[in-house]
Specification:
Chain lengths: 289, 416
């Protein structure tokens, strides 16, 4: 029984991290209708960025947690201004292909510059230990990452649903023409959303640096799991991404414990089951046809 | 329109020109008579991963190592060299057996390669062995681990120079078990290499008087190992063995270190290259035991060679780099002795040859199965505090003598 609780704890910790990693994907889709395939590459840039900052400028983990998302925010704005915005009016498939191409480009450039075997990174000071509760134990870092992720998810949800900024952003994307007629500069509000989504991928990347391999390919496998998370949660739904993040984390942990070779398959079985019953995902809105 | 037509025409002319040249040289044909150098040149081809996961541990720097071998060989033989015209060519097989197969044909036929070197990834390595057999040309494998190259799928023209799964399992599995690590749990990626390694480790640990309790398969690739590690720690094992490689290995080790069990349970890694330690940092791997085919800082001879290598590449050599050098150099020596680069002549000179060089200590090219045996090393990763310079990561715990390190010839299952 204690083993079961241990697995559950681990699943929840992983789940929190998945929720945050998928959050940017959900925000960009929910607000702009763009399926951002380059999310995995941006996540990789976040991790590589923190390793490079540490190596070149001795910036510790906590510094990277602030600097890297800002840099990625600016990079996201650049990508939106130069590339994504020109395809916004077209079929979503165009932006999907664009961001897919962008992924290949970014991954190969990182490989060229930093090689393929990965970059070193240590646990941040103060979080090396483990926290013991009775017979159970979790690494302090894992716990911190999960907690930090959940707080950030809630903050983003509040920002988009409860504030004036959130309202303007949602109005701008829902009906750009009419929002503009109300005297709001729509373009000014949509671009930062893309930057914000990319910055969130960056935060997930920084969080991943201490416990995952930092290689150019680290996002390629991860993006598939993230897509499973957002599809289960309902594309574009922030609450959905969070709930599905935890769900996937738990399924994966139980899978690893009780059916090791099927751990990853189980995630997609869950996805298939959810889509069969609720095609728009757990919290997705059904499209009016 | 006119312009396009002109371009097409020009392209066609150029194309047919190329075709003619190709036919021309093919018409000259390789001379098969003994005592001759075909096409008046010796061509060494390095076929490996130039851009993917195995790029750092072998890749372009192995090509450099082969070029170093050519230079050193020319310096040694000067005027009595059987040929002064030596070329090094290279191709990227992207770790895919079908690409390796086509590239090998292309190298042997079109680029006139007399030998193919390296070829990591077992499935690709076996595909090239088949080509070597059909074309009757020499092939020395360095980068792949499968024992099939010198076992069920061995042939007259294929040699296996550096390591294999048996040697890794024997070195790490048997030695750790004899030193008191009786209870093992093994975590492995669920594909051919991982399954092979697990079988080898199971055999060696059991033979040495230990037991492998749990064998836990994981998906490949995979980046979340948290629960696998918790599971592997159950049942009070002395040793957890991981058969992962590359990025998966780094994921595993990072998460293993955070699982808070590294003080009680020893971690053994099936296959590891020095580039893995470099990329993760010594502290993350400290205390990890593995078998190494060669270590650059082992003695003065290795160090001197590693310094030369570093001048060219700005990095320290992995065992694969040194093995490529050794294989290329000894191939050229065999050509010199034979006075010919014809496959059969060179093979005759290589078979049974005893070699001592920078890579091979007490080395011997076994005649029966073409397994090249040599001393190998049980290594432990130093903590960062004991690392005196960059890449100084390994403490050699034991030397495993050549005669014990590899599968006995009688058990190889090879018939040529």
């Amino acid at each position: 029984m204690s083993a079961f609780i241990q697995y559950t704890l681990q699943g929840l910790a992983t789940g929190g991290f998945y929720a945050l990693a998928a959050l940017g994907l959900a925000v960009i889709f929910g607000v702009m209708g763009v399926v951002n395939f380059s999310h995995g590459a941006m996540y990789m840039l976040g991790a590589v960025g923190s390793a490079v900052l540490l190596d070149v400028a001795d910036v510790p983990f906590w510094g990277a947690l602030v600097i890297v998302p800002i840099l990625l925010f600016l990079f996201g704005i650049l990508v939106e201004r130069l590339l994504v915005r020109w395809l916004l009016g077209l079929d979503p498939l165009y932006n999907f292909l664009l961001t897919f191409g962008l992924t290949l480009l970014i991954v190969d450039l990182v490989k060229r510059r930093y090689g393929v075997s990965g970059l070193p990174y240590q646990l941040p000071a103060g979080l090396e230990g483990r926290i013991n509760l009775g017979g159970l134990s979790l690494s302090s870092y894992q716990l911190f990452a999960a907690f930090f992720s959940v707080v950030l998810c809630v903050a983003v949800w509040l920002l988009l649903t409860k504030t004036r900024i959130g309202m303007i952003v949602r109005a701008s994307t829902e009906d750009a023409e009419r929002t503009r007629a109300l005297g709001i500069n729509v373009g000014r509000w949509v671009t930062p959303v893309f930057g914000f989504g990319i910055a969130l991928a960056g935060v997930a990347g920084v969080l991943a640096a201490p416990f995952r391999a930092i290689t150019a390919d680290m996002g390629s496998n991860f993006i598939i799991i993230l897509f499973a998370v957002v599809v289960i949660g309902g594309l574009g739904s922030i609450l959905g991404a969070v709930v599905a993040g935890f769900l996937v984390g738990l399924v994966e942990a139980y899978g690893q414990a009780y059916a090791p070779s099927f751990a990853q398959v189980l995630i997609f079985v869950l996805m298939a089951a959810v889509v069969l019953v609720r095609p728009a995902g757990l919290f997705g809105r059904e499209e009016a046809s | 329109m006119r312009h396009t037509r002109m371009t097409t025409l020009a392209a066609m002319v150029a194309g047919s020109g190329l075709l003619l040249t190709a036919c021309g040289s093919a018409g000259g044909g390789p001379s098969t008579a003994s005592g001759k150098i075909s096409d008046d040149k010796i061509v060494l081809a390095v076929l490996n991963d130039q851009s993917g996961v195995y790029k750092d541990l072998s890749g372009p720097n192995s090509v450099e190592a082969v070029k170093m071998a050519v230079e050193d060989w020319k310096a040694k033989h000067k005027d009595d060299a059987v040929s002064k015209n030596i070329e090094v060519v290279t191709a990227d097989h992207q770790n895919k057996p079908d690409i390796a197969n086509t590239k090998a044909q292309e190298l042997y036929d079109r680029q006139k390669a007399d030998i193919i070197l390296d070829v990591p990834t077992s499935s690709a390595a076996l595909a090239v062995a088949t080509q070597a057999k059909t074309k009757k040309k020499v092939y020395i494998n360095i980068g792949a681990g499968t024992t099939a190259l010198t076992g069920a799928q061995c042939n007259k023209y294929t040699f296996h120079w550096a390591y294999d799964t048996y040697m890794l399992a024997h070195g790490t599995g048997a030695t750790l078990t004899k030193n008191g690590g009786k209870n093992w749990n093994v975590v492995y990626p669920d594909y051919a290499f991982g399954q092979d390694m697990t079988k080898s480790f199971d055999g060696q640990v059991t033979a040495a008087g230990g037991t492998v309790g749990q064998k836990i398969p994981t998906p490949f690739p995979n980046d979340n190992f948290a629960t696998y590690i918790t599971k592997a720690a159950t049942g009070n094992p002395n040793v957890i063995g991981t058969m992962h490689a590359g990025g998966d290995l780094i994921n595993f080790v990072k998460q293993y270190n955070q699982a808070g069990i590294s003080d009680q349970i020893k971690l053994a890694v099936g296959l590891m290259f020095i580039t893995d330690i470099h990329s993760l940092g010594a502290d993350q791997f400290k205390g990890v035991t593995f078998t190494d085919a060669w270590y650059w800082n082992f003695d003065e001879q290795n160090r001197k060679w590693a310094d030369k290598f570093q001048e060219k590449t700005k990095t320290r050599p992995s065992f694969a780099h040194a093995a490529n050098y050794s294989a290329a150099f000894n191939y050229l020596e065999a050509v010199q002795e034979a006075g010919s680069d014809t496959g059969d002549d060179v093979v005759a000179k290589l078979e049974g040859k005893k070699i001592n060089d920078v890579f091979l200590r007490n080395g011997e090219v076994r005649k029966g199965d073409h397994r090249v045996i040599h001393d190998v090393y049980l290594a432990e990763v130093k903590p960062q505090s004991e690392v005196k310079e960059e890449w100084d990561y390994e403490k050699i715990v034991a030397t495993i003598p050549a005669a014990e390190a590899f599968k006995p010839e009688a058990e190889s299952g090879c018939s040529m």
